[in-house]
Amino acid sequence: MPEKKIRNMEEFAAVSGLSRPTVSKYFNDPDSVRATTRKRIEAALERHEYRPNIYAVNQNRRLTKNIGIVVPYLADPFFAEIARSIEMLVIEAGFRPILLGSHGDRGQEIDNLESLRSIKPAGVLLAPLGRISDRSAIESFCKAVPTVLFDSNMEGTGAAFIGSDNVSFVDQTVDYLCRTGTPPCFFEMKTPANPNANKRRLAYIAAMERAGLDPQVIKIDGEGWRFEEIGHKGTHDVIASGGFPSDTVLCSNDRLAIGLLAACYEHGLRVGRGDGCAMRVASHDDHPYSRFTCPSLTTAAHDYAEVSGRSVDTLFELIESGGRFDQRRETLFAARLILRDSA
Amino acid sequence: MPEKKIRNMEEFAAVSGLSRPTVSKYFNDPDSVRATTRKRIEAALERHEYRPNIYAVNQNRRLTKNIGIVVPYLADPFFAEIARSIEMLVIEAGFRPILLGSHGDRGQEIDNLESLRSIKPAGVLLAPLGRISDRSAIESFCKAVPTVLFDSNMEGTGAAFIGSDNVSFVDQTVDYLCRTGTPPCFFEMKTPANPNANKRRLAYIAAMERAGLDPQVIKIDGEGWRFEEIGHKGTHDVIASGGFPSDTVLCSNDRLAIGLLAACYEHGLRVGRGDGCAMRVASHDDHPYSRFTCPSLTTAAHDYAEVSGRSVDTLFELIESGGRFDQRRETLFAARLILRDSA
DNA sequence: CAAAATATTTTACGCGCGTAAAATTTACTG
DNA sequence: CAGTAAATTTTACGCGCGTAAAATATTTTG
Questions:
Q1: Rounded to whole angstroms, how far apart are CA atoms B183 and A296?
Q2: Scanning every residue of chain A, which has its alpha carbon at the shortest distance from the alpha carbon of B263?
Q3: Which of A26, A323, B236, B331 could bond A146 through an S-S bridge, CB–CB 3.0 to 4.6 Å?
Q4: What is residue A297's predicted lDDT score, i.e. its pLDDT?
Q5: In terms of domains, do B295 and B193 share one?
Q6: Which of A115, A228, A291 is facing B292, going by the closest CB pair?
Q7: Average pLDDT of chain A to the nearest whole number
């Protein structure tokens, strides 16, 4: 059936025997037209491949159906996966996700927000870089666009924050490690990229003190988002200067732990909880690769599903409330301890 | 200076004392207006924050400035990095990259192309899933949109293909391994997701036969893109059923090798080239994590920069030629051997 | 310096669609 | 079945901008 090509909504309305605005209504919400009308449109749709011009649509709509998703580092499988999960929820809700990665770079983060602003999104889900973020730029963005922060909090910025409860992460790992062996020292970057790291350190200190133990924090050098490399080099440095103060090391996050484990391996330090092991290592995040480290990594897992689900729900609620909440919301989800071979 | 808000190009043209079309010309190409005119516009731009409405612009332009980038799996740091590199080149060229990941899913890949088609991109850089791709859908897309394939070839599809020379990868690893120890067996998935895997197997067999050696291919079970898990389980299975036919294993790709190394570690098999090592392992791709495996992984590296650079250049050339080349082009770049500790 | 050639700007029109208000149809009442 | 309320469709207008053709300014030529 060599039906002639449909060029615009006008022509499509003609072949379905309706007026263009009726068809327009249908595309905005198929249930907003009478059932018989809907059938006619859908019948025509099967014969006449037509899709509304996305630019013309968005030019006139008060609010686009675009949802921006910004994560600090797309090459980190952790963020890639959570972004993926959010994307799917956004699509299910009938919106169009636009995924952008900031590549650990302050300027890129601002560029991303700038770029999002120009496409007039209905809302944005933003996992900020953290410490190095241009705070005032992000704040001004959040004032202009309904924004929900996730993963990494910036106090007072955005209409809501959804994340994991760092205290819950650390309490569980510290408790487990203390119960089953030497109390851990804490391994982290000197200048962490992300506020979660600070919360984790504080939670570690608090947990240790609560147990009447002496907290020991090891801070290693390094800038940026190449955490494995930083953890690797930092571990070499620590070992070179006398070793860890405890045979049990709790890493701030899994990517540091991956570097640490590689360095331990190179030094012939056997990691694990069995006989003949020189040390135990645990961490936080349940990074996708933490199952495949040597040994596999004992860690505290985020509740991916809850964080992404609640983030999306909150954003849609925000959008429906006209872009404002009476009060900023913060939601934290507890961690789940994953026991593997490293501790 | 509380300048009144500029709402559209008309108003902006007014405050700069020009007609709107002149301003329009400027935004399409700043050099297309007289120098004095340009100065006036840029002066006004500093006082009056204004940016053309992206939807209105793209509605009327013959060709948008959008460039689609599709990779098979964004949660794989290898693709995340190459995508990043391509993104930057696209931005430098004054275009707008739209990055999409197919999540190892045939349907998602088609959705991505569908979604790209609706934004009428000037061109698309596509790294197809490979075997499981919906070939006819991709072909029909390539006919409608100027498309350059990269990483994974599909014979005859797209105007060009840019990738790495699998023969060069395998020749180098096989040669090195044979020179320095026992000739390798080849470790791969039974039904590889990606045509590169087939090329690598054939290259391995050819290289071994050329050297008068007996090729040994080990094919493990597993579907999908969770290569580490597949390599891990596959290795356990191989070990349980008597072990590898050679003490030297060449993996089809680094992600399989990561799983293999984890499994070897669990079995207490020491990997490396030193004394007391039970086996050697090498691989292909130089995955970002291959520096941090235990032991660090000897592998053949892609020339990221060349592949991404040439892909982008080729696409722009394609766009300038009106979306067609007289003849389909294929460009392959050689690998670089990276010696680490595993072999 | 006038006229022709060229570069630049303006006029005029249309792109494809959203949406308020008006007109019409359908559903519901008694 | 007439009459009214509610749901639906149509009329009419405008969004913000690209672009060909016409008008004007600038540069070059003789």
A1: 30
A2: A292
A3: A323
A4: 98
A5: yes
A6: A228
A7: 93
